[in-house]
DNA sequence: GTCTATAATGAGATAGAC
DNA sequence: GTCTATCTCATTATAGAC
């Protein structure tokens, strides 16, 4: 008996059909979690939207919590990669400014989430939930803290003399604004009494963050 | 038969004991809703914390949603009053500056929520939930929009020429930062790798907001 | 991998005694 | 006003046929 053939726990590679089903389930979970939050979302809703039976959701996603974590993780790697790549490119050009570092952090997120793709739009609301709730602290730490620390180092370079605490606080304020720009545009519309232009909002959010960052880290 | 004696639906004034029980239930609901969010919170948890039976929670609070709305409403009036009073006092002095208007909006909230009172601390997290979730849009509109519009008018005075859309967006960014300062201090601590000083955080948040506001509303 | 059927649990809400 | 007991419903998760 050949041991090699048994060394992998999974005997066969997943079929193409299986992978497609899994993606449908993850996409559906992303939409439902984003629309209702973790607790109000039900496996039944997710299964119905994916067009499968509830048992299949458990088969592919495990428990409800594991499914939630998997949905968050799925796009987190792509996002972190885009952010650090942009920062690396900026540093390679030798043209590192505060605004440049800010844009390397915000644009990979805003471009995707405001770009109209339903998956990324849902992901934006999902991240707003994750960031706001202490309960998902572990998920937030795992997926976002490493990148955040890389950017804190970059911010420290362009804003020498600023304390870690102030840089961290400014970054958190900026992120909360970025998330509210994606998840709470209805509030902006309600208060301004009119629709708004996405490009203008992004532009002024960047202005807001840059000026705030620069002012806040001063002693 | 005297019609007068029946014109009120509630025949007797609530007893002192009843009012105390009601307050205990509302306080417990405030804590549980803040700790777990609306859906993960249960009437049973609230009843247990208040030291009463579940049926009594329904008696005083009505449905779960009505109880949630009542808990939010309870402190909202006091907060709005403090904000508009501070603004009125500032205007009476004739010393209206951007930073002054910002402080009239943020300090009544931050003083209470960061002041150590458990009820107000819970309320801060609760408002973070309400502001982030489309589901509570009606509650947010009812309790916060009127005050927000008063302040938008004041911001327009100290920042003439700014569009309503930009002022509204800047206010939303500021509010989201204020809420994350209360609800997500653990993120700041995690990223900075150290504890932080509350006064310093408030100071630099105000700096951040003032500079952001001023810069963002420029064309 | 996919499905049906169901187990096991816990939820919000209410009726009615006191 | 308060409590006990219970109703009704929806949930996650799993067992086992195909």
Automatic annotation (TrEMBL), chains A, B:
Gene Ontology MF term list: DNA-binding transcription factor activity; transcription cis-regulatory region binding
The HTH tetR-type domain, residue ranges: 19-79
Pfam family, one: TetR_N
Keywords: DNA-binding, Transcription, Transcription regulation
DNA-binding region range list: 42-61
Family annotation (Gene3D superfamilies): Tetracycline Repressor, domain 2
InterPro entries listed in its UniProt record: Homeodomain-like_sf (IPR009057), HTH-type_TetR-like_transc_reg (IPR050109), HTH_TetR (IPR001647), PsrA_TetR_C (IPR041586), Tet_transcr_reg_TetR-rel_C_sf (IPR036271)
Entry keyword Metal-binding: no
Protein name according to UniProt: TetR family transcriptional regulator
Organism listed in the record: Sulfitobacter mediterraneus
